[in-house]
Amino acid sequence: MPSLPDPADLEALKAFDTPTVCNALELVAPARRATGFIRRPLIAPFPELKPVVAFARTALIRSREPHPRSRAEATELRLGYYAHVAAQPLPSIAVIQDIDGPDCGFGAFWGEVQSNVHKGLGCVGVITDGSVRDLDAMAPGFFVLAGSIMPSHAHVHLVQFGGTVSVAGMVVSPNDVIHADRHGAVVVPPEAVKQIPKAADLLARREKVVIDAARSPGFSVERLRQAFAEQEDIH
Q1: What is the percent of the chain with per-residue pLDDT over 70, rounded to a whole number?
Q2: Residue 145 phi, psi (nearest 5)
Q3: What SS3 state is found at 179?
Q4: Which domains does the chain have, with CATH numbers?
Q5: Sequence-ordered list of residues with C-beta below 8 angstroms from that of 196, at least 6 positions apart, any chain
Q6: φ and ψ at 30, to 5 degrees?
Q7: Helix H or strand E encompassing 125
Q8: End-to-end alpha-carbon separation of the chain, Å?
């Protein structure tokens, strides 16, 4: 496994929203300008929650048809998945792809039980193109981005875990660093983690020039042109 980012550097990323992290990545990892983030909208049922930064744990689910395993086999698969969620490094975040195609989200894997179990195992939240339910009973502070909200779990079951998944256009492998908030999520390359706060500060200082100009009396296109020029002198 590649060397892990320093926990203090990961903690520092929580000070920024996900759009800011995406902007900063454009400076520190230009090749990722158009990749690595959520590309289709997901529902954030708890938009008041602060950004989360955690290591991805991945799985595939489906719910349209019953699972093909015996009860004992299904239990062992589920316990193996929970061990995957609870493994170091922590905190983890579940990234779950629903593979039911047009019926994606037909049954909810996530609700009161799963959110509490996952939180107890060191998982801070879930990002899924599947569905969630039990919103009023979910573990307090458990972060959620989901494709839909549905009332039933139908035949929902794990298909496999620990591989590369794609959720709303974001391709994720186990232990990828994920930054997420109500806007969406992005995979942060480990080598970029330490550089993001400095890049975010630079971008904020450049943006402030334009915002301050726009809010000033007598704002005009000529003043905007001047503000654009002033931005170029900020390094």
Answers
A1: 99
A2: -125, 125
A3: strand
A4: 36-188 (3.50.30.40), 197-231 (no CATH)
A5: 12, 13, 16, 21, 24, 25, 28, 188
A6: -55, -30
A7: strand 123-128
A8: 35
- The pLDDT assigned to 3 comes to 80
At 84, list the tokens. 């995957």
- pLDDT tens-digit profile of 120-139? 999 999 999 999 999 999 99
Measured distance CA(87)–CA(149) in Å, rounded = 29
The letter for the amino acid at 147 is: G
Strand 108-110 and strand 131-132: pairing? parallel
Q: If DSSP codes are grouped into helix, strand and coil, which group holds residue 184? A: strand
Give which of 21, 18, 10, 24 is closest to 49, Cα–Cα: 18
Residue type, 94: A
Distances (CA, A) of 153 to 74, 91, 143, 199: 16, 26, 20, 43
Residue 230, token pair as written in the block: 């002033």
Q: What is the pTM of this model?
A: 0.94
In the three-class reduction of DSSP (H, G, I as helix; E, B as strand; rest coil), residue 233 is classed as coil
H or E element, residue 181: strand 177-181
CB burial readout 198-233, b (16+ within 10 A) else e: ebbeebeebeebeeebeeeeeeeeeeeeebeeeeee
The tens digit of pLDDT for each residue in 75-122 reads: 999 999 999 999 999 999 999 999 998 889 999 999 999 999 999 999
Read out DSSP for 73-118?
HHHHHHHHHHHHHHSSSSSEEEEEEE--GGGTTSSEEESHHHHHHH
